[in-house]
Amino acid sequence: IGNSVRDAPLDDDDLSAAFRVGYDVSQNRLLVAVEIIDDSIVIPDQPSDDWTHVDGCELYLDVTHGQGSGVQLARWGAVMSVQGDAREIRYGVESSVRPRRRVYEWWVDVSTLGPGLQLEPGVDIGFDVAVEDRDADNSFTWTSWGPRTQKLEGNRRLGDWTYEFERALTTSGDPA
């Protein structure tokens, strides 16, 4: 992460994060796991009216690469939010919290991102992840891996996730 807005993290204990992307071709799902190290976790029991008052995680996806509206999926504390062109999107997120650690596990049905879209070689999806970090001292950081903010308002604000064909392997690990 490195595109921080508002209060920059003090160090890696204050805020550091990593994500992994996977897929399930049989269910046509994109899978994203986000792991966050956070020394001051702020997730109240009651939903907050202001997303900047809680810890959170956002996923940005755009199959049009700036030619249309992408989608922002967000989990801010206990609040779920969907913004952009997401009328029919099917997705889910599970989150877990332990001392100094938050984990978000997202799934998105790729066919709901665009008409007939299937996970097949060459599929390219505009992609980024952002995390929010509200601390007990009232500092707040919004940070993403890709450049700039306002991710749904133009191209070049998201990276690319491309599905590449994975060759079948024999049980010995050699190409089939």
What can be said about this structure in brief?
The protein is mostly beta strands and about 180 residues long.
Low-confidence segments, given as residue ranges, are none
Mean pLDDT: 85
Q: The biggest beta sheet, please?
A: 7 strands, antiparallel
Total helical elements? 0
Distance between the termini: 38 Å
Binned strand content: 35-45%
Output the structural class.
Answer: mainly beta
Shape: globular
Give the SSE order as H and E letters: EEEEEEEEEEE
| Amount of helix | under 10%
Cα-atom Rg, whole angstroms?
A: 17 Å
Number of strands: 11
Looking at this protein, list some descriptive labels.
single chain, 176 residues, mainly beta, seven-stranded antiparallel beta sheet, four-stranded antiparallel beta sheet, 0% helix, 44% strand, globular
Overview of this protein structure:
- Helices cover 0% and strands 44% of the residues.
- The mean pLDDT is 85.
- The strands form 2 sheets. Strands 1, 4, 5, 6, 9, 10 and 11 form a 7-stranded antiparallel sheet that branches. A 4-stranded antiparallel sheet has the order 2-3-8-7, with no helix packed on it.
- The chain has 176 residues and is mainly beta.
